[in-house]
Write a structure and sequence with these properties.
The chain is α+β, with helices and mostly antiparallel strands. The chain has helices at 3-15, 17-43, 69-97, 100-108, 116-133, 140-153, 155-179, 183-209, 214-217, 231-240, 268-273, 292-302, 321-334, and strands at 48-54, 57-62, 223-226, 245-250, 253-258, 281-283, 306-311, 314-320. It has 13 helices and eight strands. The strands form three sheets. It has a four-stranded mixed sheet, with no helix packed on it. Strands 1-2 form a two-stranded antiparallel sheet. Strand 7 (306-311) and strand 8 form a beta hairpin.
Protein backbone atom coordinates (compact mmCIF):
# COMPACT_ATOMS: atom_id res chain seq x y z
CA UNK A 1 0.00 0.00 0.00
CA UNK A 2 1.43 3.35 -1.04
CA UNK A 3 1.96 5.87 1.78
CA UNK A 4 -0.17 8.46 -0.06
CA UNK A 5 -3.17 6.16 0.32
CA UNK A 6 -2.86 6.28 4.11
CA UNK A 7 -2.37 10.05 3.97
CA UNK A 8 -5.57 10.52 1.97
CA UNK A 9 -7.41 8.17 4.32
CA UNK A 10 -6.38 10.44 7.21
CA UNK A 11 -7.58 13.54 5.33
CA UNK A 12 -10.96 11.94 4.61
CA UNK A 13 -11.34 11.06 8.29
CA UNK A 14 -10.88 14.75 9.13
CA UNK A 15 -13.65 15.74 6.69
CA UNK A 16 -16.25 13.57 8.40
CA UNK A 17 -17.83 10.11 8.52
CA UNK A 18 -19.49 10.17 5.06
CA UNK A 19 -16.29 11.08 3.13
CA UNK A 20 -14.41 8.44 5.12
CA UNK A 21 -16.96 5.71 4.32
CA UNK A 22 -17.01 6.75 0.66
CA UNK A 23 -13.21 6.59 0.51
CA UNK A 24 -13.25 3.07 2.01
CA UNK A 25 -15.91 1.95 -0.49
CA UNK A 26 -13.95 3.46 -3.37
CA UNK A 27 -10.73 1.70 -2.51
CA UNK A 28 -12.50 -1.56 -1.75
CA UNK A 29 -13.71 -1.30 -5.36
CA UNK A 30 -10.15 -0.53 -6.50
CA UNK A 31 -8.84 -3.60 -4.64
CA UNK A 32 -11.52 -5.82 -6.21
CA UNK A 33 -10.70 -4.26 -9.60
CA UNK A 34 -7.00 -5.11 -9.26
CA UNK A 35 -7.67 -8.61 -7.91
CA UNK A 36 -9.81 -9.26 -10.99
CA UNK A 37 -6.78 -8.40 -13.13
CA UNK A 38 -4.61 -10.69 -10.97
CA UNK A 39 -6.97 -13.67 -11.19
CA UNK A 40 -7.15 -13.51 -14.99
CA UNK A 41 -3.39 -12.89 -15.22
CA UNK A 42 -2.70 -16.04 -13.19
CA UNK A 43 -5.18 -17.94 -15.35
CA UNK A 44 -3.14 -16.87 -18.39
CA UNK A 45 0.13 -18.02 -16.77
CA UNK A 46 1.40 -14.67 -15.43
CA UNK A 47 2.68 -14.37 -11.87
CA UNK A 48 1.47 -11.27 -10.01
CA UNK A 49 4.24 -10.06 -7.68
CA UNK A 50 2.46 -7.20 -5.89
CA UNK A 51 -0.39 -4.71 -5.99
CA UNK A 52 0.21 -1.08 -5.07
CA UNK A 53 -2.69 1.18 -4.06
CA UNK A 54 -2.39 4.91 -4.73
CA UNK A 55 -4.86 7.80 -4.35
CA UNK A 56 -5.75 7.57 -8.05
CA UNK A 57 -6.11 3.80 -8.25
CA UNK A 58 -4.13 0.59 -8.12
CA UNK A 59 -1.37 -1.04 -10.11
CA UNK A 60 -0.89 -4.81 -10.35
CA UNK A 61 2.69 -5.81 -11.16
CA UNK A 62 3.48 -9.11 -12.88
CA UNK A 63 6.81 -10.92 -12.83
CA UNK A 64 6.74 -11.39 -16.60
CA UNK A 65 5.90 -8.87 -19.29
CA UNK A 66 3.37 -10.23 -21.74
CA UNK A 67 3.40 -9.22 -25.39
CA UNK A 68 0.63 -11.66 -26.22
CA UNK A 69 -2.31 -9.59 -27.48
CA UNK A 70 -4.97 -12.12 -26.45
CA UNK A 71 -3.63 -12.34 -22.90
CA UNK A 72 -3.49 -8.56 -22.51
CA UNK A 73 -6.99 -8.26 -23.98
CA UNK A 74 -8.38 -10.59 -21.30
CA UNK A 75 -6.37 -9.18 -18.41
CA UNK A 76 -7.07 -5.53 -19.25
CA UNK A 77 -10.84 -6.09 -19.50
CA UNK A 78 -11.05 -8.09 -16.25
CA UNK A 79 -10.88 -5.04 -13.95
CA UNK A 80 -13.45 -2.80 -15.70
CA UNK A 81 -15.52 -5.91 -16.42
CA UNK A 82 -15.82 -6.55 -12.67
CA UNK A 83 -16.82 -2.92 -12.06
CA UNK A 84 -19.50 -3.08 -14.77
CA UNK A 85 -20.79 -6.33 -13.23
CA UNK A 86 -21.14 -4.64 -9.83
CA UNK A 87 -22.91 -1.68 -11.48
CA UNK A 88 -25.36 -4.09 -13.17
CA UNK A 89 -26.07 -5.95 -9.91
CA UNK A 90 -26.65 -2.72 -7.93
CA UNK A 91 -28.86 -1.37 -10.75
CA UNK A 92 -30.98 -4.55 -10.58
CA UNK A 93 -31.31 -3.97 -6.82
CA UNK A 94 -32.45 -0.41 -7.62
CA UNK A 95 -35.05 -1.66 -10.13
CA UNK A 96 -36.58 -4.22 -7.76
CA UNK A 97 -36.48 -1.90 -4.73
CA UNK A 98 -37.63 1.21 -6.58
CA UNK A 99 -34.39 3.10 -5.90
CA UNK A 100 -33.16 3.72 -9.44
CA UNK A 101 -33.52 7.48 -8.95
CA UNK A 102 -31.21 7.28 -5.94
CA UNK A 103 -28.57 5.57 -8.08
CA UNK A 104 -28.94 8.06 -10.93
CA UNK A 105 -28.65 10.99 -8.52
CA UNK A 106 -25.40 9.51 -7.16
CA UNK A 107 -23.90 10.18 -10.60
CA UNK A 108 -25.51 13.56 -11.28
CA UNK A 109 -25.66 15.27 -7.88
CA UNK A 110 -22.06 16.46 -8.02
CA UNK A 111 -21.40 15.48 -4.40
CA UNK A 112 -20.55 12.38 -2.38
CA UNK A 113 -23.52 9.94 -2.25
CA UNK A 114 -24.91 9.46 1.23
CA UNK A 115 -26.24 5.89 0.86
CA UNK A 116 -23.96 2.83 0.75
CA UNK A 117 -25.58 1.56 -2.46
CA UNK A 118 -25.11 4.98 -4.04
CA UNK A 119 -21.43 4.93 -3.07
CA UNK A 120 -20.93 1.42 -4.49
CA UNK A 121 -22.75 2.32 -7.71
CA UNK A 122 -20.87 5.58 -8.19
CA UNK A 123 -17.42 4.14 -7.36
CA UNK A 124 -17.69 1.17 -9.71
CA UNK A 125 -19.32 3.18 -12.51
CA UNK A 126 -16.55 5.79 -12.47
CA UNK A 127 -13.78 3.17 -12.16
CA UNK A 128 -15.18 1.08 -15.01
CA UNK A 129 -15.86 3.95 -17.42
CA UNK A 130 -12.66 5.85 -16.68
CA UNK A 131 -10.38 2.82 -16.94
CA UNK A 132 -12.00 1.20 -19.96
CA UNK A 133 -12.89 4.16 -22.16
CA UNK A 134 -9.76 6.24 -21.55
CA UNK A 135 -7.39 5.19 -24.40
CA UNK A 136 -4.20 5.92 -22.48
CA UNK A 137 -1.46 3.72 -21.07
CA UNK A 138 -1.08 2.39 -18.43
CA UNK A 139 -4.87 2.48 -17.91
CA UNK A 140 -6.91 -0.58 -18.86
CA UNK A 141 -8.42 1.21 -21.85
CA UNK A 142 -4.97 1.87 -23.29
CA UNK A 143 -3.96 -1.77 -22.80
CA UNK A 144 -7.24 -3.04 -24.26
CA UNK A 145 -7.02 -0.95 -27.43
CA UNK A 146 -3.30 -1.66 -27.78
CA UNK A 147 -3.97 -5.40 -27.72
CA UNK A 148 -6.57 -5.01 -30.49
CA UNK A 149 -4.20 -2.87 -32.54
CA UNK A 150 -1.32 -5.31 -31.93
CA UNK A 151 -3.26 -8.03 -33.75
CA UNK A 152 -2.92 -5.90 -36.91
CA UNK A 153 0.44 -4.09 -36.71
CA UNK A 154 2.46 -5.89 -34.03
CA UNK A 155 2.94 -5.19 -30.32
CA UNK A 156 5.80 -2.69 -30.48
CA UNK A 157 4.20 -0.49 -33.14
CA UNK A 158 0.86 -0.66 -31.34
CA UNK A 159 2.59 0.46 -28.15
CA UNK A 160 4.14 3.39 -30.00
CA UNK A 161 0.74 4.48 -31.32
CA UNK A 162 -0.87 4.26 -27.88
CA UNK A 163 2.06 6.14 -26.31
CA UNK A 164 1.42 9.07 -28.68
CA UNK A 165 -2.29 8.95 -27.85
CA UNK A 166 -1.48 8.75 -24.12
CA UNK A 167 0.76 11.83 -24.29
CA UNK A 168 -2.01 13.78 -26.05
CA UNK A 169 -4.57 12.63 -23.46
CA UNK A 170 -2.21 13.61 -20.63
CA UNK A 171 -1.64 17.06 -22.14
CA UNK A 172 -5.36 17.75 -22.63
CA UNK A 173 -6.20 16.45 -19.17
CA UNK A 174 -3.52 18.60 -17.54
CA UNK A 175 -4.73 21.63 -19.48
CA UNK A 176 -8.31 20.96 -18.36
CA UNK A 177 -7.05 20.61 -14.79
CA UNK A 178 -5.41 24.03 -14.97
CA UNK A 179 -8.43 25.75 -16.51
CA UNK A 180 -11.14 24.26 -14.28
CA UNK A 181 -9.08 24.12 -11.96
CA UNK A 182 -8.84 20.48 -10.78
CA UNK A 183 -5.92 19.11 -8.82
CA UNK A 184 -7.01 15.50 -9.48
CA UNK A 185 -7.07 15.95 -13.26
CA UNK A 186 -3.55 17.39 -13.17
CA UNK A 187 -2.37 14.55 -10.92
CA UNK A 188 -3.84 11.86 -13.20
CA UNK A 189 -2.31 13.59 -16.24
CA UNK A 190 1.15 13.46 -14.66
CA UNK A 191 0.56 9.81 -13.73
CA UNK A 192 -0.37 8.91 -17.34
CA UNK A 193 2.58 10.82 -18.82
CA UNK A 194 5.12 9.25 -16.45
CA UNK A 195 3.96 5.65 -16.69
CA UNK A 196 3.29 5.78 -20.44
CA UNK A 197 6.95 6.76 -20.98
CA UNK A 198 8.09 3.83 -18.84
CA UNK A 199 5.69 1.49 -20.67
CA UNK A 200 7.32 2.06 -24.06
CA UNK A 201 10.85 1.62 -22.73
CA UNK A 202 9.82 -1.61 -21.00
CA UNK A 203 8.19 -3.09 -24.09
CA UNK A 204 11.13 -1.96 -26.23
CA UNK A 205 13.50 -3.71 -23.83
CA UNK A 206 11.39 -6.86 -23.91
CA UNK A 207 11.17 -6.82 -27.69
CA UNK A 208 14.92 -6.38 -28.19
CA UNK A 209 16.29 -8.77 -25.55
CA UNK A 210 13.72 -11.58 -25.66
CA UNK A 211 15.15 -12.84 -28.97
CA UNK A 212 18.74 -12.89 -27.63
CA UNK A 213 20.39 -15.51 -25.45
CA UNK A 214 23.24 -15.37 -22.95
CA UNK A 215 25.54 -16.73 -25.63
CA UNK A 216 24.75 -13.68 -27.78
CA UNK A 217 25.65 -11.11 -25.10
CA UNK A 218 28.43 -12.98 -23.31
CA UNK A 219 31.92 -11.47 -23.03
CA UNK A 220 34.65 -14.08 -23.46
CA UNK A 221 37.47 -11.85 -22.20
CA UNK A 222 37.50 -11.96 -18.41
CA UNK A 223 39.73 -12.80 -15.46
CA UNK A 224 39.30 -15.94 -13.39
CA UNK A 225 41.13 -16.56 -10.13
CA UNK A 226 41.52 -19.53 -7.82
CA UNK A 227 40.02 -19.18 -4.38
CA UNK A 228 43.48 -18.93 -2.75
CA UNK A 229 44.70 -15.95 -4.81
CA UNK A 230 45.65 -12.98 -2.62
CA UNK A 231 43.75 -9.72 -2.96
CA UNK A 232 46.87 -7.72 -3.87
CA UNK A 233 47.78 -9.94 -6.81
CA UNK A 234 44.19 -9.98 -8.13
CA UNK A 235 43.79 -6.20 -7.95
CA UNK A 236 47.15 -5.58 -9.63
CA UNK A 237 46.20 -7.91 -12.48
CA UNK A 238 42.78 -6.29 -12.86
CA UNK A 239 44.43 -2.85 -12.91
CA UNK A 240 47.01 -3.94 -15.46
CA UNK A 241 44.36 -5.34 -17.82
CA UNK A 242 41.90 -2.51 -17.15
CA UNK A 243 39.11 -4.85 -16.05
CA UNK A 244 36.46 -4.26 -13.41
CA UNK A 245 35.31 -7.82 -12.73
CA UNK A 246 36.79 -11.19 -11.83
CA UNK A 247 35.28 -14.66 -11.44
CA UNK A 248 36.31 -16.95 -8.59
CA UNK A 249 35.37 -20.63 -8.50
CA UNK A 250 35.32 -22.56 -5.24
CA UNK A 251 34.32 -26.16 -5.77
CA UNK A 252 30.91 -26.05 -7.39
CA UNK A 253 30.27 -22.47 -6.21
CA UNK A 254 30.87 -19.29 -8.20
CA UNK A 255 31.81 -15.85 -6.88
CA UNK A 256 32.36 -12.48 -8.56
CA UNK A 257 34.56 -9.57 -7.51
CA UNK A 258 33.28 -6.16 -8.65
CA UNK A 259 35.64 -3.20 -8.34
CA UNK A 260 32.65 -0.83 -8.56
CA UNK A 261 31.17 -2.24 -5.35
CA UNK A 262 34.42 -2.37 -3.39
CA UNK A 263 35.11 0.03 -0.54
CA UNK A 264 38.71 0.67 0.59
CA UNK A 265 39.45 -0.43 4.14
CA UNK A 266 41.45 1.64 6.65
CA UNK A 267 43.80 -1.24 7.45
CA UNK A 268 45.72 -1.68 4.19
CA UNK A 269 48.04 -4.33 5.71
CA UNK A 270 45.09 -6.57 6.53
CA UNK A 271 43.67 -5.85 3.08
CA UNK A 272 46.75 -7.00 1.17
CA UNK A 273 47.02 -10.20 3.19
CA UNK A 274 43.43 -11.21 2.52
CA UNK A 275 42.22 -13.39 -0.33
CA UNK A 276 40.21 -12.07 -3.26
CA UNK A 277 37.34 -14.42 -2.46
CA UNK A 278 36.89 -12.65 0.90
CA UNK A 279 35.67 -9.58 -1.00
CA UNK A 280 33.59 -11.45 -3.57
CA UNK A 281 29.89 -12.27 -3.58
CA UNK A 282 28.36 -15.67 -4.40
CA UNK A 283 26.25 -15.79 -7.56
CA UNK A 284 24.27 -18.37 -9.44
CA UNK A 285 25.93 -18.84 -12.85
CA UNK A 286 24.06 -18.60 -16.12
CA UNK A 287 23.75 -21.17 -18.86
CA UNK A 288 24.53 -20.13 -22.47
CA UNK A 289 20.96 -20.77 -23.66
CA UNK A 290 19.15 -18.60 -21.11
CA UNK A 291 17.11 -15.64 -22.35
CA UNK A 292 18.92 -12.30 -22.21
CA UNK A 293 15.70 -10.69 -20.96
CA UNK A 294 15.49 -13.13 -18.04
CA UNK A 295 19.11 -12.35 -17.18
CA UNK A 296 18.41 -8.62 -17.29
CA UNK A 297 15.52 -9.01 -14.83
CA UNK A 298 17.60 -11.27 -12.57
CA UNK A 299 20.51 -8.83 -12.47
CA UNK A 300 18.23 -5.87 -11.82
CA UNK A 301 16.40 -7.69 -9.02
CA UNK A 302 19.61 -8.83 -7.29
CA UNK A 303 21.57 -5.63 -7.96
CA UNK A 304 24.35 -7.41 -9.85
CA UNK A 305 26.68 -5.83 -12.41
CA UNK A 306 28.21 -9.09 -13.62
CA UNK A 307 27.27 -12.79 -13.69
CA UNK A 308 29.47 -15.68 -14.88
CA UNK A 309 28.38 -18.07 -17.61
CA UNK A 310 29.21 -21.75 -17.17
CA UNK A 311 28.73 -25.05 -18.91
CA UNK A 312 29.57 -28.36 -17.23
CA UNK A 313 31.42 -26.56 -14.45
CA UNK A 314 33.65 -24.54 -16.77
CA UNK A 315 33.43 -20.74 -16.90
CA UNK A 316 32.80 -19.66 -20.50
CA UNK A 317 32.50 -15.91 -20.00
CA UNK A 318 30.57 -13.19 -18.21
CA UNK A 319 27.46 -11.11 -18.80
CA UNK A 320 27.55 -7.50 -17.63
CA UNK A 321 25.06 -4.68 -17.61
CA UNK A 322 27.20 -3.00 -20.28
CA UNK A 323 27.00 -6.04 -22.56
CA UNK A 324 23.22 -6.15 -22.20
CA UNK A 325 23.02 -2.41 -22.91
CA UNK A 326 25.18 -2.84 -26.03
CA UNK A 327 22.94 -5.67 -27.26
CA UNK A 328 19.91 -3.46 -26.73
CA UNK A 329 21.46 -0.64 -28.76
CA UNK A 330 22.38 -2.91 -31.66
CA UNK A 331 18.94 -4.53 -31.70
CA UNK A 332 17.30 -1.10 -31.78
CA UNK A 333 19.45 -0.09 -34.76
CA UNK A 334 18.75 -3.35 -36.62
CA UNK A 335 15.02 -3.21 -35.87
CA UNK A 336 14.58 0.56 -36.29
CA UNK A 337 12.12 0.17 -39.15
CA UNK A 338 9.79 -1.84 -36.91
CA UNK A 339 9.63 0.73 -34.09
Amino acid sequence: MHFTFLFLLFLMALLGLTPLIFFIVLFASVIAHEFSHSIVAKYRGLEVSRIILTPIGGIAFTEDITTDAKTELMVSFAGPGFNFLVVAVVWMWGVFSGNTQLLISSLTAGEIPESIFGMIFYSNFVLGVFNFFMPALPLDGGRFWRSLLALKIGYLRATRVLINVSMMVAFLMFLAGVLLPSFWLMLIAVFIYFFASIEYQTILLQNCLSSSTVKDVMQEHFLEFDEDVLFERAVNELHEKRMYFAVIKKGSEFFVFDVNNFEVLDDTVELWQAKIIDFSVPVEPLSPDESAMDVFKKMAKQGLNVVPVQSRGKVLGIVTRESLSLELKFKRILNAENE
